[in-house]
Amino acid sequence: VLAGVAVGAGAWALAHRQPGAELPPAPLVVDRMREVARLETLDLQVYKKISYEPEPTPTGALWKDVLAWAKSSLFPSRGRAIVFGTVHLGLDLSKLDARRLRIQGSRIEVALPPMQAQVELRPGETEIISSNLDSGQTARLLELARTAFEREVMADPALQAKARGSAERALTGLLFSLGFREVVFVDSVRPVGAGRRLHLDHPRA
Predict the structure, then answer these.
(1) Which of 133, 136, 110, 112 is nearest to 26 (CA)?
(2) Which of 3, 121, 139, 186 is the most exposed place for a label (fewest CB within 10 A)?
(3) Rounded-to-integer distance, Cα 100 and Cα 30, Å
(4) Where are the strands (E) in the chain, listed by range?
(5) At residue 14, does pLDDT exceed 80?
């Protein structure tokens, strides 16, 4: 929805822009791009069932190994949990700056920063089952879940493409509204590489 609104606004602004109006400087363009890209972050509701039962770590000292075995066998740490979280998938805005832009007249090339996933666990919905873990081990269990969520999302090419496509459409609308007439997304702004051109049609009467 946000992308559709941005593109529509961009086409309207382009159609009504005064001839000869100056294009904004690169720093202002970056600020506006950050605002729009932040809105286009893809939010995913996820859950995972995980278990925790650490194996003893050999130390090389006989009696220490015996004690480690006894502790893990006679008093094992165990825990199972159903963990819920929200994954925010979007552009890494900390890497978005003027060096990723090339402005040539009314044409702008943009090298988008990589995607990143930020995981927010929902402890109120998380259920710990059959656990004798202490607070530190429980925290470790939840950290394992958070890392697993992040890795799964970052390894999913379909989600990556969906999030990137949404950001590109919204940013194209923004850049057209700022007065640019051609927007090209490239891998790197130096040297100039082949990019994807996204054109906007003028609204039909």
Answers:
(1) 110
(2) 139
(3) 9
(4) 42-52, 79-91, 101-104, 107-110, 115-121, 127-129, 182-185, 196-197
(5) no
